[in-house]
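Troubleshooting log. The previous structure file for this entry was overwritten by mistake, so regenerating from the original sequence record. Sequence copied from the archived sheet and checked twice against the printout by T.R.
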Amino acid sequence: MTSKRITGLDVSRYISSFHTASRHRGMEFEVGDDFDEYINITKIIVGKAPTYPNFRPDCSWLESGRAFWIVGRDRSGQVAHVQALRMDDLRSTNLAEHLESLKGCYAHPKSMTSSDSSCACHAPAARQIAGIVVYHGDLWLRDDFRGQGFPSALAGIAFGLAWAKWSPDFIYALVPGWIIEKGVAEQYGYLNREPRGSVLRLSNLGIEDDDWLIWLTKNELSGLIRRTLNADEYI
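Regenerated output below.
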């Protein structure tokens, strides 16, 4: 299978494998693209930081076909996990310019931010990340579901759906240093990382971040799908 092109059936099997594993561990998923609904779900989650403007419909373009969210619920129907993804067409620019313009956060940065809002991207690779690019963020997993091997399953479902919808050139996330230090980025399947990917200041929201950039290329994601489908437990 390693020499074959990834097909829609392959991606369906890839998603299904992680969905089945997660159901066995007590989590069911809902996928949607109404971000008003998503914000109504996430704003009442105890222990989750507020959703950033990237996935707030009052701040960003999140129309159907460009973004989606995933919500995981336990057997009693309570929210145990959330994450969201959005696609940006960066064929005429690159990720560093996209982030520094604040268009990663706002549809109209000049009119929607305070005068001291800024973002600096010092990760060299961000200048090479371009094309159809997917941002993967707002990840949260409830404490009682941690330590059970969920990160690979949660990312696998997200990656598979992103591939099926957009076949992106890159998928990336922006994460705090502890995600790198504890090896969580690797658990999610990200193969590349650079520090200072987003030094973000949104003073009106009390946001001051210095996040790492982690990412996968299309070829790397293709390889990840193939390896998963070739693993004995998914045959």
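Strands lie at 28-32, 67-73, 79-90, 118-120, 131-141, 170-175, 192-202, 207-217. Archived copy saved in two places this time.
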